[in-house]
Design a protein that fits this description.
151 residues, STAS_dom, alpha/beta, anti-sigma factor antagonist activity, Transcription Regulator spoIIAA, Anti-sigma_ant, Anti-sigma factor antagonist
Length: 151
């Protein structure tokens, strides 16, 4: 695993503490995490499938377990998003609910949004078309008031 650079992210309000790019050369997925004052944004790049979903899960759970005030998973740069990707998001959402952490997903591309909608998971996952919409949702007290435990 390579850890690279420190970068800022204009979409996250508050002081950005750091951004870390985590990737495995053998895998076709990269996750960049930007830690802001009121939310962590985990931007996933590449394909999320049966071969690498564990990597994405590891990064999301690390964010949640490190005390993220809210977590936004940005899937705008994902080319393929399979059922294992949906399962990872559901697990992460469930963990966020346990920790009382706001959670939202950005899926502006059809390749990602369609499987989530077909699985009827858009409300549960707090699906949004843009990063700004997702950040506004988690800043407003969670992911549209939908709770895993109340469903």
């Amino acid at each position: 695993m390579a850890v690279e650079g420190v970068r800022g992210h204009g979409g996250v309000r508050g002081r950005v503490r750091r951004s870390v790019v985590l990737e495995d050369v053998e895998e076709s997925v990269t996750v960049e995490v930007v830690e802001g004052g009121d939310a962590f944004v985990a931007a996933v790049h590449g394909d999320v499938d049966v071969d690498n979903f564990r990597r994405v899960r590891e990064v999301l759970f690390t964010c949640l377990n490190r005390g993220a005030p809210a977590l936004v998973v940005d899937l705008d740069d994902v080319g393929f998003f399979g059922s294992m990707g949906i399962a990872v998001l559901v697990e992460a959402r469930q963990r966020a609910d346990v920790l009382d952490v706001g959670f939202a997903v950005v899926a502006g591309r059809r390749a990602v949004a369609r499987p989530i909608r077909v699985a009827d998971m858009e409300e549960l996952l707090g699906l949004h078309r843009t990063l700004d919409e997702a950040l506004a949702a988690v800043r407003g007290g969670g992911s549209d008031g939908f709770s895993w435990w109340s469903s």
